[in-house]
Design goal:
Pfam families: HSP70
GO molecular function: ATP binding; ATP-dependent protein folding chaperone
Low-confidence stretches: none
Order of helices and strands: EEEH
InterPro entries: HSP70_peptide-bd_sf (IPR029047), Hsp_70_fam (IPR013126)
Number of domains: 2
Largest sheet: 3 strands, antiparallel
Strand order of the largest sheet: 1-2-3
Distance between the termini: 75 Å
Mean pLDDT: 89
Protein name: LUMINAL-BINDING PROTEIN
Keywords: ATP-binding, Coiled coil, Nucleotide-binding
Length: about 70
């Protein structure tokens, strides 16, 4: 029996077990999403940041025009 554990940069654990005698193997991926932002939440935050950046740019243009 050979068992391989791999952890990627995102903390995702991949485990593979292979029975050398029969050649049969199984794999499982274990993630820890608790306390992490979902992809949807990340995309929403990026969108909000882009909108606020545009608002800041407009305010700066008004201030620069007054000076």
């Amino acid at each position: 029996m050979e068992v391989t554990f791999e952890v990627d940069a995102n903390g995702i654990l991949n485990v593979k077990a292979e029975d050398k005698a029969s050649g049969k193997s199984e794999k499982i991926t274990i993630t820890n999403n608790k306390g992490r932002l979902s992809q949807e939440e990340i995309e929403q935050m990026v969108q909000e940041a882009e909108e606020l950046t545009e608002e800041d740019r407009k305010v700066k243009e008004k201030i620069d025009a007054r000076n």
